[in-house]
Amino acid sequence: MGLCSWLRERFRRTDDVPAEASAARAGARAEAPETFGCSAGSWVEVPPFVEVDPKDHAAACVVASAIAAGDRPESTMVVRRVSIANDEHRRVACVATAIAAGAYEMSSFKVKKIYKQMERGSEHAA
Q1: Highest mean pLDDT: which of 42-46, 53-57, 89-93?
Q2: Does residue 124 form part of some domain?
Q3: Whether 79 and 99 share a structural domain
Q4: Are 65 and 76 in contact (CB under 8 A)?
């Protein structure tokens, strides 16, 4: 597949794509990650952001509204979701990038997804 073909396929409008092809693509994206030695169902994705406690929403909404109102005071703002960075995701991404940078010093890395193995509570002998 050449570059032009790839670009054409990538930026095709959804009304040009047959229903079967779009359903097949959606099914292919929803599959679990491939892992070696473990079943694919035993892994869960670690989200980069987690929801904030509802009682802390007010402070975040006031700060965001004040920042937005500084630029356009006549505008209105609706806050739909308030999230904070997941500490576990940041820590794992930092460690993984540091290890990879030790092996490949002149490279840059971007962590897209992090998965962790689901805990099994009843299988331990102790």
Answers
A1: 89-93
A2: no
A3: no
A4: no
Q: Is 63 exposed, middle or buried (0-12, 13-18, 19+ CB in 10 A)?
A: exposed
Domain with 106 in it: 42-48+86-119
Residue 125 is assigned to a structural domain of this protein: no
CA dihedral 32, 34, 36, 41 (to 10 degrees): 0
Radius of gyration of the chain (CA): 22
Give yes or no for a contact between 95 and 114, defined as CB atoms under 8 angstroms apart. Answer: no
**Dist. CA 32–CA 40, nearest whole Å:** 6
In a domain, residue 23? The reply is yes
Partners of residue 85 on adjacent β-strands: 49
Would the pLDDT of 88 be above 80? yes
Neighbour tally for 42: CB within 10 Å: 14
CB 100 within 8 A of CB 107: yes
Amino acid in position 48? P
Which pLDDT score, from 0 to 100, does residue 55 have?
83
* Per-residue pLDDT, 92: 93
Evaluate whether 50 touches 81 at the Cβ level (below 8 Å).
no
